[in-house]
Specification:
Low-confidence stretches: none
CATH topology of the largest domain: Aspartate Aminotransferase, domain 2
Radius of gyration: 20 Å
Largest sheet: 7 strands, mixed
Order of helices and strands: HHEHEHEHEHEEEEEHHHEEHHEH
Oligomer: single chain
CATH class of the largest domain: Alpha Beta
Distance between the termini: 24 Å
Strand order of the largest sheet: 1-9-8-5-4-2-3
Shape: globular
Number of strands: 12
Number of helices: 12
CATH architecture of the largest domain: 3-Layer(aba) Sandwich
Mean pLDDT: 97
Length: 367
């Protein structure tokens, strides 16, 4: 079976380095908010071209804490997409704000600027822009949009590690970026982990306080915070995995290039090509097919694992059915959810694996 992710096939050198990192943490006797966390915060902020990194428990907390640090909360609205992991919207709700859902562009599945403009009200305080599947596009337009309406641009970078546009990395375009290091991400920990990156010192300081019970100094709590701290073990492991991220990203791009060149089935459509290689890091390689379920079964029979990201848009989830959305509807999101399918696209794939996936997709007759 060709898997969506194959961690067991990762290089022995990396596995040994992670074990050494874990040993280093155990022998240090310090497990929360220590030197490993501080070092990785600095490393990842620098990688993103930013000054500050605040390690937190996971990517959802990164969005919630970022919103709260910006003063976004009850009575405020935040525009985002229904085509995302539920965590994006749940973070907005947990911050006390109200999510408002705009539709997506069918060619990319990214948030539509035109749809977002129909969602703006006097209560809109931010846009959470999801760099879905690992792609980053049209940031000049989004920056201008947010400046025009005087709202904050927050980047959900959970799938976009190392994605860049015009020499700037995901997370550096808005007031802050929120990263997840969940194990399946391009840069993944061995458990939950996340980070806020920013150039705004006050935002970083408040986020650091909020992640630690709202504590300013030991036993002083000027506000109510969370228990959401990146731990030493995950930080040490992430630091080792970061050394491999560029190589792994390049392999993802090679897999994606082969798919774009090789998939020639009239029943299958690839999403839009990026204008430059740096814009997409292919956390997921997504195709669409009007008979998606039959295609998925065909690929399973050919020993190829696939996933659907995401089969149920946010506005159809039971707790979110009454959320306000684009008055013209969310038709593109619903259609994409009904037709999208993620193919294996990970660094451990061999050339033979890639060829097998292409051959299996092309042999699908449609039903």
């Amino acid at each position: 079976m060709i898997l969506m992710n194959d961690f067991k096939a990762e290089p022995l050198e990396l596995r040994e380095a992670m074990l050494e990192a874990a040993k280093r943490v155990v022998e240090s006797g310090w497990f929360v908010l220590g030197k490993e966390v501080s070092a990785f915060e600095q490393q990842w902020a620098l990688t993103c071209g930013l000054k500050y990194g605040v390690g937190v428990g996971n990517g959802m907390d990164a969005i919630e804490i970022g919103l709260r640090a910006l003063g976004v909360g009850p009575g405020d609205e935040v525009i985002t997409t229904p085509m995302t992991a539920f965590a994006t919207v749940l973070a907005i709700i947990r911050a006390g704000a109200t999510p408002v859902l705009a539709d997506i562009e069918p060619q990319t599945a990214l948030l539509s600027l035109e749809s977002a403009s129909r969602c703006v009200t006097s209560r809109t305080k931010a846009v959470v822009l999801v760099h879905l599947y690992g792609q980053i596009r049209a940031m000049d337009l989004w920056k201008a949009f947010c400046a025009n309406y005087e709202i904050a641009l927050i980047e959900d970078c959970a799938q976009a590690h190392l994605a860049s546009l015009g020499g700037k990395t995901a997370g550096s375009f808005g007031v802050m970026g929120a990263y997840s290091f969940y194990p399946t991400k391009n840069l993944g920990a061995m458990g939950d982990a996340g980070m806020i990156v920013t150039n705004v010192e006050k935002l970083a300081e408040r986020a650091s306080q909020l992640r630690n019970y709202g504590q300013s100094v030991r036993y002083q709590h000027p506000e109510l915070g969370l228990n959401s701290r990146l731990d030493e073990m995950q930080a040490a492991i992430l630091a080792e995995r970061l050394k491999w991220l560029s190589v792994f990203t390049e392999r993802r791009r090679q897999v994606a290039t082969a798919y774009f060149d090789g998939i020639k089935n009239p029943n299958v459509t690839c999403l839009a090509l990026p204008e430059s290689r740096s814009e997409h890091v292919y956390h997921l390689f997504v195709i669409t097919c009007p008979c998606r379920d039959a295609l998925q079964e065909h690929l399973r029979q050919n020993q190829i694992q696939t996933f659907i990201h995401y089969p149920v848009p946010i506005h159809i989830q039971e707790p979110c059915r009454n959320l306000r959305h684009d008055p013209l509807g969310l038709v593109n999101s619903e259609h994409h959810a009904d037709t999208c399918l993620s193919l294996p696209c990970h660094p451990q794939m061999s050339d033979e694996d890639i060829a097998a996936v292409i051959a299996a997709v092309n042999s699908f007759q449609g039903k």
